[in-house]
Amino acid sequence: MLPLDTAAIAGPPLGALANYPFVSAHRQLQPGDLLCLFTDGVSEAGASDRMFGTERLAQILLAAPEQALAAQAAAIRDAVRQFEAGQPPFDDLTVLLAEWYGQPANGR
Q1: Which of 35, 86, 94, 97 is deepest in the core (most CB within 10 A)?
Q2: Domain tally, the chain
Q3: Residue 12 domain-assigned (yes or no)
Q4: CA of residue 77 relative to chain centroid, distance
């Protein structure tokens, strides 16, 4: 599992800028692919002048891909809170993980 580079299609958060020309894109998931959706409370969590960022997030997901999704989400939460070094969170922290197992045998 390698992180997908979405820089070419990324934009500001939905609703942050009126009339922003968002780019449409699609990606076909393959069996075993992991989809990770998260709020900026994860990537922008701070420790002094540094942010947690998406690279740290990807490292956590790549470190134990065999773990259950709930355990991976807990690992992300714990890493963000540890990174904040005891400072109160500035924002929400929401993570949604979903794994694609492939097309069912009956095709539905």
Answers
A1: 97
A2: 1
A3: no
A4: 11
